Amino acid sequence: MSDSLQNQNGGRTVAELQRRLADFAAARDWGQYHTPKNLVAALSVEAGELVEIFQWLTPDQSARVMADSASAARVEDEVADVLAYLLQFCEVLGVDALAALEAKIERNETRFPTSGNGHSME
Ligand SMILES: [Mg+2]
Fold it and tell me: Mind telling me which InterPro entries this protein's record contains (predicted)?
């Protein structure tokens, strides 16, 4: 993971957050459970929990979900769960998540060229 790729909230890197997650698990002897199969299953469960928040909302309600502090807190909590399991999954498999994302964006920019107005579906 490139240390030059930092978020804008305290300059923490993805690698630093992955280290904290690994240290947290190691301190509780949870590493034995962090197989790729278990982590990807946990990722899917947490993604489902994120979907559950939106399940019965109208499109307008879903667009305003962050306006309600309780709903916003639930969304942020599930986003954290999803990202934590994705980063742990990447760590055990040696996947550089940001490099994989950058490569995917570059492939998509080639696969789906714009027509000049920013709308490739026209
Ligand atoms: Mg959760």
Answer: dCTP_Pyrophosphatase (IPR052555), DCTPP (IPR025984)
Cα 16 to averaged position of ligand 1 atoms, centre (Å): 22
Instruction: Compute the distance from residue 46 Cα to the ligand 1 centre, in Å.
Output: 5
pLDDT, average across residues 85-102 = 96
Ligand 1 centre to CA of 81 (Å) is: 5
Name which of 54, 51, 55 is nearest 64 in CA terms. 54
CA of 11 to the centre of ligand 1 (A): 25
End-to-end C-alpha distance for the chain, whole angstroms: 37
pTM for the full predicted model: 0.84
- pLDDT number for residue 3: 42
Q: Measured in angstroms, how far is the CA atom of residue 37 from the centroid of ligand 1?
A: 18
